[in-house]
Design goal:
This protein is 37% helix and 20% strand. By secondary structure, the chain is α/β, with parallel strands linked by helices. The chain has two domains: 267 residues, Alpha-Beta Barrel (TIM Barrel); 53 residues, no CATH class. The strands form four sheets. It has a nine-stranded mixed sheet with strand order 7-8-6-5-4-3-2-1-11, with helices on both faces. A three-stranded antiparallel sheet has the order 12-13-14. Belongs to the anaerobic coproporphyrinogen-III oxidase family. HemW subfamily.
Length: 418
């Protein structure tokens, strides 16, 4: 089961943006997200907009996907041009899914070439693809690097076989050091994604996973608490009592362990769930995700993909839209010359300010206190006293979470935005 689309207003068939969209765009970066909605199997915890071959029915062929995605890239250029938004070279490209590396490398490169030919890439642009450890070879990684990719993010999740089995991940954890080495040998930056809080995962299991990730020498690690979404297979297993989710104390202990181990290995947190190493003054932080959290512009290509264009216009501070979900319907709309957008939301001042706080508070750089309402600025002192907000940073005019604050980030944000 894939997640429902957000509620919103209808999006126009030609994709036109509302008046004022993109005002101030020259001061913001522009990124492109390419969604590849294919997986060999659906993991029991996953609620992403992904499809196995048996779920695609009569359309949505993987073989034709690159051509379909290029159609949306061409439409995007037209929509932005008609909105009067100046063309900007793309600073980051992120190919996610699904499992993007189920596509032939030539198709991934073809989509990247479409982005490059349409807008150009900034010098030193970050170009990432997600990958499963069992979906790459030394040759395919070298081909990705030769085609312009600079970074690969592997879905490691765990190094412990019984944890991977509960998550229904199919790769052999012994393969992780190999794929990291192959990618590094190809000249790619490497990130590993981990999940903690899987039913049946002990603290020692989690320690093994983090230590295995550190031992590979990667410069970036993401660690996310497992969230079991309604409608997933795992949610049904929990409801029937077949598996038991860990409590909040277990998840907090695992987060703290990860932070200790990663920090000791030279990877510093830069977002609540992300750690990166700095070498020779260059951080390995994911620039694409930082652009999301900082409120910059991006176009999401693919079924179910979301896009966002900010605006400095008072009262209409940006527009977010999302595409139809199913690959067949997505392809059909583009073939008819229509935008694949299913709906959109125009942000007012209050919504934009809420998002600034929600996203900025999660970053190590924090956010300026002036971005908060007068009531929220008063509440910061209470959070400093409770050990949730860094007092020294607050005196310097910024809200930065302590480690305890990171554990309770959602609660802090709710208090600052209610």
């Amino acid at each position: 089961m894939t997640p429902a689309l957000p509620e919103g207003i209808d999006a126009p068939d030609d994709g036109s943006l509302p008046p004022g969209a993109g005002t101030g765009a020259a001061a913001r970066s522009f990124g492109v997200y390419l969604h590849v909605p294919f997986c060999t199997v659906r993991c029991g915890y996953c609620d992403f907009n992904t499809y196995t071959a048996s779920e695609l029915g009569g359309g949505g062929s993987q073989h034709a996907y690159a051509v379909t995605a290029l159609s949306e890239i061409h439409l995007a250029a037209d929509v932005l041009d008609r909105a009067g938004i100046p063309a900007r070279p793309v600073s980051t490209v992120f190919v996610g899914g699904g499992t993007p590396t189920l596509l032939a490398v030539r198709d991934l490169v073809r989509m990247l070439d479409g982005v490059r030919d349409t807008w150009g890439l900034e010098d030193g642009a970050e170009v990432t693809t997600e990958a499963n450890p069992d979906s790459v070879t030394p040759a395919s990684l070298a081909e990705l690097a030769a085609g312009g990719f600079t970074r690969v993010s592997f879905g490691m999740q765990s190094a412990v076989p019984h944890v991977l089995a509960t998550l229904e991940r199919t790769h052999d954890p012994r393969r992780i050091p190999d794929v990291v080495r192959w990618a590094q040998d190809a000249g790619l930056d490497v990130s590993l994604d981990l999940i903690y809080g899987t039913p049946g995962e002990s603290l020692d299991d989690w320690r093994t996973s983090v230590e295995t990730a550190v031992a590979t020498g990667v410069d970036h690690v993401s660690a996310y608490a497992l969230v079991v979404e309604p409608g997933t297979k795992m949610a049904a297993q929990v409801r029937r009592g077949q598996v038991t989710l860990p409590d909040e104390d277990d998840q907090a202990e695992k987060y703290e362990l990860a932070d200790d181990l990663l920090t000791a290995a030279g990877l510093d947190w830069y977002e609540v769930s992300n750690w990166a190493r700095t070498r020779d003054g260059r951080t390995a932080a994911c620039r694409h995700n930082l652009a999301y959290w900082r409120g910059h512009d991006w176009w999401g290509v693919g079924p179910g993909a979301h896009s966002y264009v900010a605006s400095d216009e008072p009262g209409a501070r940006g527009v977010r839209w999302w595409n139809v979900k199913h690959p067949s319907r997505y392809a059909a709309r583009l073939a008819q010359g229509l935008s694949p957008a299913a709906g959109r939301e125009i942000l007012d001042d209050a919504s934009a300010e809420l998002e600034t706080v929600m996203l900025g508070a999660r970053l190590r750089e924090g956010l300026v206190l002036s971005a908060l309402s007068p009531r929220a600025r008063t509440a910061v002192a209470t959070h400093v006293a409770e050990g949730l907000v860094d007092g020294r940073a607050a005196l310097d005019g910024r809200l930065v979470l302590t480690r305890r604050g990171r554990l309770l980030a959602d609660s802090v944000v709710r208090d600052l935005t209610d």
